[in-house]
Amino acid sequence: MMKRNLTTHHSATLSAMERQEEDEDRVKLFGFWSSPYVYKVEWALRIKGIQYDYIEENLENKSDQLLEYNPVHKKVPVLIYQGKPIAESEVILEFIDEAWKHHGDRILPEDPYDRAMARFWVRFGKDTLSPPIWKWFTTQGQEQEAAYAAAVEQLQILEKELDGKRFFAGEKMGLVDLSLGPFSYIIPIYEEITGVKLIKEEKLPSLLAWMDNFLNSSIVREHLPPMDKLKLRCQAIREAFLKNTN
Amino acid sequence: MSSTKEEAPAVRVLGLWASPFVIRVLIALRLKGVEHEVLEEVVGKKSELLLRSNPVHKKIPVLLHHGKPISESLIIVQYIDEVWSSNAPAVLPADPYVRAVERFWAQYIDDKFPRGIRILKGTVDGNKDEIVEQLSTALQLLEEAFLKLSNGKHYFGGDNIGYLDIALGSHVGWVRAVEKIAGVQLLDAAKVPHLVAWADRFCAHPAVMDVLPDADRFVEYSVKYGSFFPTRSSTTK
């Protein structure tokens, strides 16, 4: 599809087809206000300086468009690029870095070994760290205690990897920071609700500092979910889980 | 830059021949024509080198490149593609969108097949009928994806095997083995004809044929070592 030189047209005189083509070229993101996966994608787009149209989904009543664009999982986020959908946040993050390679900062490092390490820690966050944290938040009693211990064990591994660096990627944020980033506001919410501290200064000082660095970075602090609303939602989620197991 | 016979080879793979995740790494190395040494682990006993190289997960496969360890099969495959980028063919497609599509499906495959195969093998408890239905649905979706991505050519990657071919193809050995073990049909020519034809082509590919044995060998392995498998997989994805 040839890109039209839009400066030769006044928008009022654009034909319906031209308007549709212009519309198709815009990046769109289907999301939900509390989804950490959506925020990762939005921060990545902001790092690259990409303009996008955001469409808020009602996850209890998903739009036809969402179901058409992500028939396999029916989930957000879904990024639409030139009218074509991409789903799964990790996949979207790598896509953003590759499609806009020369815009803004690189999200993944250049060196193949460093890239492999970044991908490793992203998987670690998803497969190894998230499950016990979620379990800790949604259970009680012995089950919760066991999950807490497992979560701390994985966090200690992460602490070692971070090793006092400002971000996992070094001086600037990268893929791993974006991927683990939501923990920086979710864990404090979970701690407040459960009344238990997961990230203690004496045991996980680098991680505690990283959470601060992440939340205060220019990209992130300008775009965070509404915390009070999120806390209420998390509270309701915990209560629902505890109710179900009784 | 070649190593003398006294030095450790530049590229070593820690693995088990029957692991589809290890098979992925071997296919990628063979595809790129990279000389490598395979260190076969002993089933049920992890070597010191493995424990040292992958202390976080203690799982195979691990690629050691000049001694530096890389873990997780799909991460290793991408690493191989990026390091030996001047060796044809490219494993990941050039276009970022097509890459995203292949990565999406590779993730989907690893969400469905490893667990499903374990249940059908009998090493993990589960509802076999439900799993057969899930895997059949997955294969149906992959059949459609194949038609779109292959564009009339032989592989997901087009003229040659690529990332998604390797991601799915590495599971063909065990898929065919559990068909025999559980007495079920998964790669059904009536339901997924293109995938069945693709699977045969994949298994006969020069980079694949020596590292992806026949289903019978996997069945034998399952009989021999079934009791050695812990309830959680001993291999990484």
From TrEMBL, chain A:
Claim: Cell division is one of the keywords in the record: no
EC number: 2.5.1.18
Keywords, comma-separated and alphabetical: Transferase
Domain (GST N-terminal): residue spans on this chain: 25-104
Keyword Iron tagged: no
GO MF annotations in UniProt: glutathione transferase activity
GST C-terminal domain location: 111-240
Pfam families: GST_C, GST_N
Matching Gene3D superfamilies: 1.20.1050.10, Glutaredoxin
GO cellular component: cytoplasm
InterPro entries in the cross-refs: Glutathione-S-Trfase_C-like, Glutathione-S-Trfase_C_sf, Glutathione_S-Trfase, Glutathione_S-Trfase_N, GST_C, GST_C_Tau, Omega/Tau-like, Thioredoxin-like_sf
Family under the similarity heading: Belongs to the GST superfamily.
Record's protein name: glutathione transferase
Organism: Eleusine coracana subsp. coracana
Lineage: Eukaryota, Viridiplantae, Streptophyta, Embryophyta, Tracheophyta
From TrEMBL, chain B:
PROSITE patterns xref list: GST_CTER, GST_NTER
Family annotation (SUPFAM superfamilies): GST C-terminal domain-like, Thioredoxin-like
Keyword Transferase among record annotations: yes
Broad class of enzyme this protein falls into: transferase
E.C. number: 2.5.1.18
One GO BP: toxin catabolic process
Annotated GST C-terminal domain residues: 95-233
The organism of origin for this protein: Eleusine coracana subsp. coracana
Top-level taxon of the source organism: Eukaryota
GO terms assigned for molecular function: glutathione transferase activity
Keyword Translocase: no
Catalytic activity, reaction form: RX + glutathione = an S-substituted glutathione + a halide anion + H(+)
Protein name: glutathione transferase
Keywords linked to the UniProt accession: Transferase
Entries under InterPro entries matching the protein: Glutathione-S-Trfase_C-like, Glutathione-S-Trfase_C_sf, Glutathione_S-Trfase, Glutathione_S-Trfase_N, GST_C, GST_C_Tau, Omega/Tau-like, Thioredoxin-like_sf
Residue stretches making up the GST N-terminal domain: 9-88
Similarity section: Belongs to the GST superfamily. Tau family.
Gene Ontology cellular component annotations, sorted alphabetically: cytoplasm
A Pfam family assignment: GST_N
